[in-house]
């Protein structure tokens, strides 16, 4: 009985976890990032691809840190937020960061890397590594490949978390670009989910088998069962 109870609790935790992160709301992922904010008020905290400053506003960062920087590639957006954030800087991703080497304590980057080419992402990660100090935190949130990914013209390609881990955390191997570092530790990897249609996927070329499969999927959908599919993630890394 104890074994069954344990399995049930484990399943329920996993079920609730998927439901909580099955959302387009960024706030649950901002909450993950909040756990790793530096303690010192003088720490340099950077939000790259800040947009209108939703991340900084949600966590009230302007009142917590003297050296808060919001970087974005849209000049109109930067002008709009300058009245609220002293250090709002126009920045095109993959260019050199406006920070000295090993001076930044915290970098947050949400829904930016999917707009970069492979070469640009590699250069961007090199800049992250250059400016982060020892013990610094790098947090990246990004979409993965799903049916609606390329409905946005500015999306260049999706990058799974393994790409970042391969170039910042793991032992060097023969890869298409130079390994940037192996001195980062993965603190957390949380996936975002979406509910996908039961019509996606399973089927058969044989009519009787396909009829049975589609019938089972229809019954499952009528019972309110849902199929959760990963469509994004938040990855937290610490520089050692």
What's the topology here?
Elements: H1 2-20, H2 27-34, E1 44-48, H3 54-58, E2 67-72, H4 75-81, E3 88-90, E4 104-110, H5 118-131, E5 132-143, H6 161-168, E6 184-196, H7 207-222, E7 227-239
Parallel strand pairs: 1-2, 1-4, 2-3, 4-5
Antiparallel strand pairs: 5-7, 6-7
Helix content: 25-40%
Main beta sheet: 7 strands, mixed
Tell me the CATH topology. Answer: Rossmann fold
| CATH top level class name | Alpha Beta
- Integer average pLDDT: 88
Evaluate the radius of gyration: 21 Å
Distance between the termini: 44 Å
Query: Structural class of the helices, strands and pairings?
Result: alpha/beta
The CATH superfamily title: Vaccinia Virus protein VP39
The string of secondary-structure elements, in order, is HHEHEHEEHEHEHE
Number of structural domains: 1
Detail the poorly predicted runs: none
Strand order of the largest sheet: 3-2-1-4-5-7-6
Shape: elongated
Count of β-strands? 7
CATH architecture: 3-Layer(aba) Sandwich
Proportion of residues in β-strands: 15-25%
């Amino acid at each position: 009985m104890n074994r069954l109870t344990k399995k049930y609790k484990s399943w329920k935790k996993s079920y609730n976890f998927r439901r909580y992160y099955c959302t387009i709301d960024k706030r649950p992922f901002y909450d993950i990032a909040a756990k790793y904010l530096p303690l010192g008020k003088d720490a340099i905290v950077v939000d790259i691809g800040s947009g209108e400053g939703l991340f900084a506003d949600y966590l009230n960062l302007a009142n917590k840190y003297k050296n808060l920087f919001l970087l974005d590639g849209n000049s109109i957006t930067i002008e709009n937020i300058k009245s609220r954030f002293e250090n709002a800087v126009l920045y095109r991703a993959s260019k050199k960061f406006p920070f000295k080497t090993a001076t930044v304590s915290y970098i947050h980057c949400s829904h930016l890397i999917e707009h970069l080419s492979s070469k640009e992402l590699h250069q961007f990660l090199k800049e992250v590594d250059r400016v982060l100090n020892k013990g610094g935190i790098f947090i990246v949130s990004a979409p993965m490949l799903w049916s609606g990914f390329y409905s946005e013209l500015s999306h260049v390609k999706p990058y799974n978390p393994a790409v970042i881990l391969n170039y910042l955390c793991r032992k060097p191997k023969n890869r298409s670009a130079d390994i940037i570092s192996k001195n980062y530790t993965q603190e957390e990897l949380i996936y975002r989910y979406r509910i996908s249609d039961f019509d996606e996927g399973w089927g058969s070329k044989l009519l009787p088998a396909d009829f049975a499969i589609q019938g089972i999927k229809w019954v499952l959908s009528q019972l309110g069962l849902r199929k959760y599919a990963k469509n994004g993630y938040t990855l937290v890394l610490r520089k050692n």
